[in-house]
Amino acid sequence: MPDMFLDKFRGLVPKYLNREWSKDDGIRIPELDAEVSRHDFDVPLVLREFLHCVGSSELMEVYNFFWDPDELEVDDGFLLFLEDEDETTVWGFRVEDLDVPDPIVWRRNADGQWESEEGTFSEFVFDQFEWVFTEEDEEEE
Predict the structure, then answer these.
(1) Minimal CA–CA distance to 60: which of 34, 94, 25, 86?
(2) For 116, which DSSP code?
(3) How would you write the pLDDT of the chain (141 residues) with one tens digit per residue?
(4) What is the Cα–Cα distance from 80 to 93, expressed in whole angstroms?
(5) For a FRET experiment, which of 10, 11, 15, 128 has its CA 20 to 30 Å from that of 22?
(6) Which 3 state secondary structure label does DSSP give 118?
(7) 52 within 8 A of 6, measured Cβ to Cβ
(8) C-alpha to C-alpha distance for 24 and 38, rounded to whole angstroms
(9) For the chain, what percent of residues have pLDDT higher than 90?
(10) Which string of DSSP letters, residue by residue, matches 18-30?
């Protein structure tokens, strides 16, 4: 697996969980490959790297819920990977973009309409965690 964002994804653990990253935070490549190969669709490189780095960590369930590799599914022309805590909003990639290493993220709201997040997965993830943890810090003050 080429290293596109591995170091940055590993860096999420010390930044937000206040501890060193360990291999147990992620999903090992053989296990990840086995899970992903069961699907009849491709999983973009950036999502594979994210799951490899933090797919077993607490970051998978902070505010919104990232789906495990075996839970990934295609619906309505999108590969879904994230759901909000109220199960009313999901995020995904357009199926025609699955061969793009770091595709644009789209959001389907409760009304069923898809809207672009106007950012790639890597941008979306880093912004999402920054927003979640900044909001948590503000609530504690």
Answers:
(1) 25
(2) E
(3) 457 799 999 999 999 999 999 999 999 999 999 999 999 999 999 999 999 999 999 999 988 999 999 999 999 999 999 999 999 999 999 999 999 999 999 999 999 999 999 999 999 999 999 998 986 555 555
(4) 7
(5) 128
(6) strand
(7) yes
(8) 23
(9) 86
(10) SS---GGGS--HH
68, 82 contact by CB (below 8 A): no
Write down the residue that tokens 């199960």 correspond to: 87
- H/E segment holding residue 135: helix 121-140
DSSP state of 81: E
Beta bridge partners of 125: none
pTM above 0.70, yes or no: yes
Burial tier of 84 (Cβ tally within 10 Å: 0-12, 13-18, 19+)? middle
Domains annotated on the chain, with CATH: 6-140 (3.40.1580.10)
List, in sequence order, every beta strand (DSSP E) within 42-141. Answer: 65-66, 73-75, 78-83, 90-94, 104-108, 114-120
